[in-house]
Design brief:
13 helices; three-stranded antiparallel sheet; alpha/beta; single chain; 16% strand; seven-stranded mixed sheet
Length: 374
């Protein structure tokens, strides 16, 4: 089979991941690979090095990357269950479901955890963060989500990092839905751990996540893991000492797809150029939806170019019918996740461009006629 023989997708995924991928990324998965082969392990090492360079252009040698099997949440759990010692305490800044998930992971592992919840429609309260760190010296680690895809909000991770480091704490950033699509530098953030996934802004397919970490931070976690398969330190040490070898069977096809996705990121011009495309997708979408009478959940000042939440229309509207109408026209969107308003969400990332957004707007306009009876 040639690349041009790969069939087109029946629809475009407008979600925060999994997302629409290129034919070349799909094509990379059409061969079988051995996990012990030197060529494969060299590829893993190349991926690790490239991810570290994407994460920072400042003091690259102070940072390292490891890959972890499973969904992005597996990598989050790997960090939380390994990085925090038995006598440690985690403070989680939450304003959506994914911040809450971090707190749930900590509770599952019997980790002492405190939560500063700012509600779904507001960014984390930095003054409350300062008060918490002043009043509770037991806190050793602080975690926050960069792009909270519950709403599409971008959280002020650089300002949070300044505060966290002022008080001498370990800083964990869940950059699941932003890394590779929004310019960020782990060194400038002063983050100790930055977590993301293969099937987000790098535009690979599901199968593994990855953790970019400060070397000094990860080296201090030996023996702290609360699980076997999600032991972050042991996974990193294996890859460091055995030229990219994974501790357990790795998702070989996904890894090759990811290597192709990284090449396509480079060919596009890197994170800055991808960010420009995502911003154009987002601006085209929002402007067009507003012309059709829709209202965004968030103000533009808080909105990311990753995924956008819209208030559901008034009248006789059913999301499932709206969803199915759009799917028959070639687009798959996301239901709402916030609890305080009735919403739906549309992703702006993946192998899509402005023309896809314009076609979507035509489909939305046509679907409204058969979905909403006002």
């Amino acid at each position: 089979m040639q690349i041009e023989d790969i069939p087109d997708n029946p629809y475009t995924l407008l979600t925060p991941g999994p997302l629409s991928t290129s034919k070349r990324v799909k094509y990379a998965m059409l061969q079988d690979f051995c996990t012990w082969d030197d060529d494969y392990n060299n590829l893993v090492q190349d991926i690790r090095n490239k991810l570290t360079k994407i994460a920072t252009s400042n003091s690259i040698g102070n940072y390292t990357t490891l890959l972890m099997q499973g969904s992005g949440t597996f990598s989050v759990e790997s960090v939380i269950s390994t990085a925090i010692p038995k006598d440690g305490k985690l403070l989680v800044l939450t304003n959506g479901a994914y911040g809450e998930r971090i707190a749930s992971i900590a509770r599952c592992h019997k980790i002492d955890v405190a939560v500063n919840d700012s509600g779904e429609l507001e960014p984390p309260d930095v003054n409350l963060l300062i008060d918490s760190l002043k009043s509770d010296p037991a806190i050793t680690h602080v975690a926050v989500v960069h792009c909270e895809t519950t709403t599409g909000m971008l959280n002020p991770i650089e300002k949070i990092g300044e505060i966290v480091k002022h008080y001498g704490k370990i800083y964990i950033v869940d950059a699941m839905s932003s890394f590779g699509g929004i310019p960020i530098d782990i060194a400038n953030l002063q983050a100790d751990y930055l977590i993301s996934s293969a099937n987000k802004c790098i535009q690979g397919v599901p199968g593994f996540g990855f953790i970019v970490a400060k070397r000094s931070a990860i080296e201090s976690t030996q023996g702290q893991a609360r699980t076997l398969s999600l032991d972050m330190y042991s996974q990193w040490r294996e890859m460091e000492s055995k030229n990219g070898k994974w501790r357990f069977t790795s998702p070989t096809h996904t890894v090759h797809a990811f290597a192709q996705a990284l090449k396509e990121l480079e060919d596009e011009g890197g994170v800055e150029k991808r960010y420009e495309r995502y911003q154009l997708n987002h601006r085209t979408l929002v402007d067009g939806m507003r012309e059709l009478g829709f209202t965004t959940l968030l103000p533009d000042t808080l909105q990311s170019p990753i995924i956008t939440s819209f208030l559901s229309p008034d009248g006789d509207y059913q999301f499932k019918q709206f969803y199915n109408n759009l799917k028959t026209k070639g687009f798959v969107i996301y239901p709402g996740k916030v609890t305080v308003r009735d919403t739906f969400r549309i992703g702006n990332i993946g192998d899509i461009n402005r023309d896809d957004m314009l076609h979507l707007l035509d489909a939305v306009k046509a679907s409204l006629k058969s979905t909403v009876n006002v």
